[in-house]
Every structure is written in C-alpha cells, then in structure tokens.
C-alpha cells in the first residue's frame, strides 16, 4: 500500500519534472527563434534594401515614397548597367585579376605548404611562423611603401606600374599567399604520415607524392583556400583605389564607388544595382560551397 | 670478439648514414626550391615594403632629406593626429567587443536549434561577411542618406525624432562602429559555433543534474572551454578592425571635420591625395605596435593550442 503510493508519487513527480524540462526546452527554443529572427532582420536589412532600391526608377526614389516598398518595379537599372561599356570593363578587369590571383596563389601556396609541412629544411619552422606573421600585416600598412616603390621603378626603368589594372595581380598575392599557405599547411599536416611513407617505399618522387596523394586528399582544403583567395581579390578596395585611377583601369568595387558617385549627384538606383552585381559572384560561390567556405574560415584561424 | 662485431656493425651504419645524409640534403634542397616563390613574394612584397615604410617615415616631404623623427614631432603637435589616435582606439576596441558579444549570443541561439535547421540559419547569418565590405557599406550609406534615410522614414512613422546619421560627429562614430559590427560579427558567430560544438555534452548534463541554470552553464562551462578560441578570434579581429579602411572611407570619408578618421584612412588622405608620402607612412606606422602585440598573443595561443592537441 505504502509502496504503491510512493510509486505513484514518484511517477507523478518524475512526469512533472520531465514535463517541465521539455516545457523549458520548448520555451528556450521559442526565444532562440525569436531572437534569431531579430538578428536575421538586422543582418539582412542592407542586402534586401539594396535589392529593393535596385528595382526602383530614379523618379520613384526622388518621390520619397515608402523606401521599403517598390510600387513600380523596373529592371531599367540592370539594363542600363549591363549595357554600359564601362561597367562591363570593370567586371572584366575584376574577373581577370581574380582568376589570375587565384591561380598564382594556389600554385605558390601548395608547393610551399607541402615543403613546409612535410619536407622540412633548415629554417622551415621559422618560415612557417613568418608566413603566419606576414598574414597579420594589413594592406593598409603596405600600400604607401609599395606605391613609392612602384614610382621609383618607373623612374629607373620606365616601366609604368601605377594606373594599370594588371598591377593588382602583383599586389593581391601579398594578401592571399600567406593565408592560403597557412591554411594548406594545416590541411597537409593532417594527412597521415603513413601515406607518404608508403608512397616513398613504392618509389614515388616528391612531385608524384604531391600530385598523387597530397593534392587529391587535400581537395577540400584547396577549395576552401581558393574560395578565400577569390573573395579577397574580388573585394579588396584599398589597392585599386590607391593604384588605379583611369576609368578603364578600375575593378568593380572601386569602379562603382568612384564612377557612379559623381560629386553630389548620387544615382542611388544604379549604385545599389552595381553593388548587388558586385556582391553577386562571392554570394553565388558561397551559396553553392558554403561548407567549404566555413571550414576554411574556422581552420584558418585556429589550426596550429 | 666484441670489437670485431662492433666494427662490423659500424661500417654499414656509417655508409647508410652517408646516403641518408645525401638524401636529406637533396630533400631539403628540393623543399627550399618549392618554398622559394613564397619566400620571394613575402620578402619582396611584404617584408621589404614594411621596412621601407620605416625609412620613408624619416624623410621630408620631397623625400630628399633625412629628418629623423621630424614627421613624428610634427604629428604630435597636431590636434587631428590625437583625434585620429582616439578614434582609432575607440573604433577598434568598441567594435571588437560588440562583435564578440553579438557573435557569442547568436552562436548560442543557433546552437540551441535542432541540428537539422542549423545549416539554414547559419547560412543566412553569414551573408554580411560574404558580401564585399565596400559594396555593403554603400547600402549602409544609402540607408543613412541625409534626405532619404530609410531609417528616418521608419522613425517618422513611429514618432521617434529624426537622426542626422552621418552629419553629427557622435552619430557618425556610432554608424561607423555599427557597420563594422554588422560586417564582422558573423565571423565571430561561426568561430564560436565551432567552439561550442566541441564542448562535451556530458559537462552540460552533469551541470544540469547539479541544478545549474543556463547562465551558470554558459559562465562556468562554455566560456572556460571556449577561452582559447574567444581570445584568438578577438585578437584576429582587433588586427583587422584596427587596420580597417573600406568602411570609414566609403561611409564618412573621415568626416564630419575629420572626426571619424582612423589611421588607415588618414594615412591614405595624407599620402595619396596630399602627396606627402613620408607623413602618410609615419601615420600608418602607428598601427604596427598594436599589430605586434596582438600577433604576439595570437602566436602564443596558437602554440598552446598546438601543444594541447
């Protein structure tokens, strides 16, 4: 009798407690969603607003109706920009620079990371640390001496480096190579030693070891490094602003900022369209390769 | 007898060593050649310019005379310089703290969700980090527009007084920091989320049995377990934020009346537009000490992390 009551009591208490935990969990989940929605609104307001404005005609913008709504959606901004020769030149410059920088960076950093992670030579540990330190030196510290050096090269040899879009192909590797190498060292170090010992026993040379084992195994890391390199070279703003000035030598971000903003006249519809188109390539890559993107982000800062 | 055996053993050992040595030497030569492009790029385009900027900072405007610390003395006498120092520090420190706090909170909320839905939310929350900062800052510039500000339109409908976003020095500082937090907090969110995933669930269960509430769980379990990543991320971000250029350049261009200039933008204005390269180099060199301190602590943390693993 007593045991029975005790049992039911225990059962009730247990059920009640269980119920409160799941209720607490549900409450926590509700508040998580609630605040996440607020944060998503905060995070997505600028891109959404870009899109809204890009669909407006300049008449609608200057009429100052509800800025958060489009009453007469039009694609005229997109048509104007995409048929404008200048914008297409910016796009072409950006694309060529980014593709070249990605190729150069990947070749340099894969070889260097293989040598530093696996082959070890005199000073290789110091060099690995040095690579990491150079990654921490920002472009804002380097652009003035580089500018002066390029002017000096022009004085001495007559080769004009300033105000040519291709000079960015020389400049961007300063930002991308150290990080990509650091990332690749991390990925290569995580490959088990047994694999390359087996390859050595089978008579493979270092090149074969690299191309047959390391590159295939580290493909996710290589993709992450490529995405990073592309994003950096597409988005950099300081170098092109300092080193290129003529309208036909600009890359996309600087081109949009300097040519669409003329004095005090802001063609906001076109600026927002240009900004959206300029943001599109990294966003598209991100949409398809999000997991690589995130793994590169987290590995780069923490792998030792 | 023993001698003979020993000698016999030693001979092959020595010849083996010789080929091994040769092998090792050849290996390190190949390795050095493989790393040579990297070394060239780092030496010519990073180390040399960094040292050259120190030399540049000691020259006069026409870059013909050595003036020692003349540029620095000149800077110390200028009010604008001290304003830039103050603004740079304020900007970097506040922005990093807010980025860390927002990232920490958002990471916990995302971690709370069922595993299935996390990917979608993470994907949406990382978008500010993916858009090139120059492009998204343009959107913010348009949101803060003096006559067409979309925020002021909302405020007018809610009965809140209008704000001169970029026209008032204090609001302009607020806007610059806000945009920076907006760009940077997704990075913190991703890093902290990765760190949260590595906190063992058993610890939370044990704490729950002991009657810990959510705040105690965060304070006594999550923060100590994530300490290393919290530090590394904050230091990384400190470097990037301290050297920030795009956001200030596009949003305020240093104005109103130089109130929002940071080292990078002021150095740009002096060196490229004002054509005084040595003065610009001197200003940009002031970023170096903070960078060096942050780099030192990052390296120490990365090493410690390496030893733990």
3D architecture notes:
The complex is a heterodimer of chains A (304) and B (309). Chain A is 80% helix and 1% strand. Chain A is mostly helical and 304 residues long. The termini of chain A are far apart. In chain B, 80% of the residues lie in helices and 0% in strands. Chains A and B meet through helix 1, helix 4, helix 5, helix 6 and helix 8 of A and helix 1, helix 3, helix 4, helix 5 and helix 6 of B.
Write the layout of secondary structure elements.
The complex is a heterodimer of chains A (304) and B (309).
Chain A: H1 2-54, H2 58-62, H3 76-83, H4 85-119, H5 124-136, H6 139-157, H7 167-171, H8 173-189, H9 193-201, H10 206-217, H11 219-235, H12 238-243, H13 252-260, E1 261-262, E2 265-266, H14 268-288, H15 290-302
Antiparallel strand pairs in A: 1-2
Helix pairs in contact in A: 1-14, 3-14, 4-8, 4-11, 4-13, 5-8, 8-11, 11-14, 11-15, 13-14
Chain B: H1 2-56, H2 70-76, H3 79-112, H4 115-125, H5 127-130, H6 133-143, H7 150-158, H8 169-197, H9 201-209, H10 214-242, H11 246-251, H12 263-273, H13 277-285, H14 287-308
Summarize the structure.
The complex is a heterodimer of chains A (304) and B (309). With 304 residues, chain A is an all-alpha fold.
Radius of gyration of chain A: 27 Å
Report the helical percentage of chain A: over 70%
Strand order of the largest sheet of chain A: 1-2
Cα distance, first to last residue of chain B?
Answer: 49 Å
Mean pLDDT of chain B: 85
Order of SSEs of chain B, N→C? HHHHHHHHHHHHHH
Provide a count of the helices of chain A.
15
Q: Give the distance, in angstroms, between the N- and C-terminal Cα atoms of chain A.
A: 65 Å
- As a percent range, the share of strand residues of chain B is under 5%
Order of helices and strands of chain A: HHHHHHHHHHHHHEEHH
The helix-and-strand class of chain B reads mainly alpha
């Amino acid at each position: 009798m007593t045991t029975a009551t005790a049992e039911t009591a225990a059962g009730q208490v247990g059920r009640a407690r269980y119920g409160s935990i799941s209720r607490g969990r549900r409450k926590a989940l509700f508040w998580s969603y609630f605040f996440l929605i607020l944060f998503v609104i905060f995070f997505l307001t600028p891109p959404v607003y870009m899109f809204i404005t890009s669909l407006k005609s300049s008449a609608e913008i200057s009429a100052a109706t509800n800025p958060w709504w489009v009453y007469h959606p039009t694609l005229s901004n997109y048509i104007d920009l995409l048929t404008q020769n200048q914008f297409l030149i910016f796009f072409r410059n950006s694309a060529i620079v980014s593709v070249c920088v990605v190729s150069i960076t990947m070749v340099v950093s894969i070889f260097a990371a293989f040598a530093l992670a696996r082959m070890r030579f005199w000073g290789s540990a110091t060099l690995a640390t040095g690579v990491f330190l150079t990654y921490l030196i920002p472009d804002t510290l380097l652009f003035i001496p580089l500018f002066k050096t390029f002017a000096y090269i022009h004085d001495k040899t007559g080769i004009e480096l300033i105000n040519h879009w291709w000079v960015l192909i020389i400049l961007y590797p300063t930002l991308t190579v150290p990080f990509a190498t650091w990332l690749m060292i991390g990925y290569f170090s995580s490959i088990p030693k047994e694999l390359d010992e087996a390859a050595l026993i089978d008579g493979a040379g270092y090149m074969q070891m690299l191309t047959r084992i390391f590159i295939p195994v580290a493909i996710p890391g290589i993709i992450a490094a490529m995405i990073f390199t592309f994003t950096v070279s597409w988005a950099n703003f300081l170098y092109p602003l300092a080193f290129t000035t003529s309208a036909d030598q600009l890359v996309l971000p600087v081109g949009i900022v300097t040519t669409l903003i003329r004095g005090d006249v802001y063609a906001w519809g076109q600026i927002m369209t240009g900004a959206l188109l300029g943001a599109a390539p990294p966003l598209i890559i991100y949409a398809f390769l999000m997991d690589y993107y995130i793994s590169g982000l987290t590995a780069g800062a923490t792998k030792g | 007898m023993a001698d003979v055996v020993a000698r016999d053993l030693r001979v092959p050992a020595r010849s083996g060593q010789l080929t091994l040595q040769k092998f090792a030497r050849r290996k390190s030569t190949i390795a050095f050649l493989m790393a040579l492009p990297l070394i060239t790029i780092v030496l010519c385009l990073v180390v040399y310019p960094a040292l050259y900027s120190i030399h540049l900072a000691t020259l006069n405007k026409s870059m013909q005379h050595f003036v020692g610390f003349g540029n620095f003395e000149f800077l110390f006498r200028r009010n604008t310089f001290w304003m830039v120092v103050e603004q740079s520090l304020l900007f970097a420190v506040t922005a990093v703290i807010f980025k860390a706090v927002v990232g920490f909170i958002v990471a916990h909320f995302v971690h709370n969700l069922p595993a299935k839905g996390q990917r979608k939310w993470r994907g949406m929350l990382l978008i500010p980090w993916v858009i090139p900062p120059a492009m998204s800052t343009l959107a913010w510039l348009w949101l803060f527009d003096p006559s067409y500000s979309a925020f002021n339109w909302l405020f007018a409908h809610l009965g809140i007084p209008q704000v001169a976003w970029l026209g008032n020095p204090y609001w302009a500082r607020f806007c610059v920091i806000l945009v920076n937090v907006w760009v940077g907090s997704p990075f913190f969110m991703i890093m902290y989320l990765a760190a949260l995933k590595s906190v063992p669930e058993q610890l939370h269960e044990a704490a729950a049995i002991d009657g810990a509430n959510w705040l105690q769980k965060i304070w006594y379990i999550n923060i100590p377990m994530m300490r290393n990543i919290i530090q590394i991320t904050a230091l990384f971000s400190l470097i990037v934020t301290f050297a920030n250029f795009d956001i200030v350049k596009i949003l305020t261009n240093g104005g109103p009346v130089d109130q929002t200039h940071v080292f990078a933008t002021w150095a740009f204005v002096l060196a490229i537009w004002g054509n005084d390269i040595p003065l610009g180099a001197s200003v940009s060199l002031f970023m170096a000490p903070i960078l060096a301190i942050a780099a030192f602590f990052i390296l120490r943390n990365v090493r410690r992390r390496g030893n733990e693993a």
